[in-house]
Amino acid sequence: MSRPALTLKWFGCYLMLLGLALMLVPNLLLGLFHVATTSEVWIRVVGVLAFNIGVYYLAAARSESRPLFLASVYTRALVLASFAAFALLQLCEPIVVLFGAVDFCGGLWTLHALRAENSAHAISNQSC
């Protein structure tokens, strides 16, 4: 498995665990971050979506789906920008930005791995 694929594999595992927590014990997770608890189903729906995206990331990692690796860099940056905007507009607790920061850092990790691999390929092609 390539380095970029490993970044998606680990991020996919994180999303699956986060999704499971949001589906099974959402108020425990919300309470840990001092976010108001809820009895509404929306938080569990978010958990299902996070879990499913994690599954997609694992599948992309296993199949070395480079277009998805790159797309994930952009979409994970968008998560941070969106969550920050929501917090600035007081639509959510500011701590939610932390989850966006985790996404953003994961995207940077993937980008770094993609660039390192591209550099290694460029060097090996020059020596041939």
Word description of this protein:
With 128 residues, this protein is mainly alpha-helical. It has one domain. Helix content is 81%, strand content 0%. The chain contains 5 helices and no strands. It has helices at residues 3-24, 26-32, 42-62, 66-88, 96-126. α1 packs antiparallel against α5. The two termini are 24 Å apart.
Order of helices and strands: HHHHH
- Gyration radius (Cα, Å) is 17 Å
Strand content: under 5%
> Which outline best applies?
elongated
Strands, count: 0
What number of domains?
1
- Stretches where pLDDT is under 50 for at least 5 consecutive residues are none
Helix content range = over 70%
**Annotation field: number of helices:** 5
Largest sheet: none
Mean pLDDT rating: 94
- Structural class call reads mainly alpha
| N- to C-terminal distance | 24 Å
Brief overview:
The protein has 128 residues and is mainly alpha-helical. 81% of the residues lie in helices and 0% in strands.
What is this structure's SSE topology?
Blueprint: H1 3-24, H2 26-32, H3 42-62, H4 66-88, H5 96-126
Name some characteristics of this structure.
single chain, about 130 residues, mainly alpha, 5 helices
